[in-house]
Amino acid sequence: MRTRSPEADEALPAVHVDIALNVNGEDRCLTIDTRLSLLDLLRDHLGLTGAKAGCERGHCGCCTVLVDGRRVYGCLTLAVACGNARVMTVEALGGADLHPLQEAFVARDAFQCGFCTAGQLCSAIGMLDEVARGWPSSVTGRTPPVPVLTGPEIRERMSGNLCRCGAYQNIVAAITDVAP
């Protein structure tokens, strides 16, 4: 069994790079540490605290945001990999009026403590876009050619987002309400 030398435990020196990205419709140019996660960039550097730091291992989905329209876990995504990308967080939804999905979450009581809600909303928006593009899931199979959003289909597509309160039935109902 090999043991590590004390030198191996010393932190590597930080490397900073300049990146440009669009966050919630606003162009941003930042100098960041290459080790910075997208979640930490959003929360600590841009003050966008909607995405939550849950497990920080990609297991819970509380940090889900959209990068160029695709769902990603902010805790596992390096910010430097998002250079020149469009990033959308829950803060971009609604405005003066709630987004239809937010309205459905309220109407269906699809949240309890609210901790996972931002990730659930972003994931649902990404999932609805995937369905609109005809992307199948493991539930969809090969037929029908266009996925139909049944309860099992929604559950499969949202399976990367956990709700500690167990509001899954209401989350599925809210997504069903806004699905085309």
Mean pLDDT: 91
Strand order of the largest sheet: 2-1-5-3-4
Q: What is the element string, with H for helices and E for strands?
A: EEHEEEHHHH
Strand residue content: 15-25%
Strands, count: 5
Helix content: 25-40%
Shape: globular
Low-pLDDT residue intervals, each spanning 5 or more residues:
none
End-to-end separation in angstroms reads 59 Å
Outline the biggest β-sheet. 5 strands, mixed
Which structural category do the helix and sheet elements fall into?
Answer: alpha+beta
Taking all Cα atoms into account, the compactness measure Rg is 18 Å
- Number of helical regions: 5
Task: Walk me through the structure.
This protein has 180 residues and is of the alpha+beta class. The chain is built from 5 helices and 5 strands; from the N terminus they run E-E-H-E-E-E-H-H-H-H. It has helices at residues 38-45, 100-107, 117-132, 151-157, 168-178, and strands at residues 16-23, 26-33, 64-67, 70-73, 86-88. It has a 5-stranded mixed beta sheet, with helices on both faces. The longest helix has 16 residues, at 117-132. It is globular and about 55 Å long. The mean pLDDT is 91.
Tell me the layout of helices and strands:
Blueprint: E1 16-23, E2 26-33, H1 38-45, E3 64-67, E4 70-73, E5 86-88, H2 100-107, H3 117-132, H4 151-157, H5 168-178
Parallel strand pairs: 1-5
Antiparallel strand pairs: 1-2, 3-4, 3-5
Helix pairs in contact: 2-5
Structure at a glance:
The chain is α+β, with helices and mostly antiparallel strands and 180 residues long. 28% of the residues lie in helices and 15% in strands.
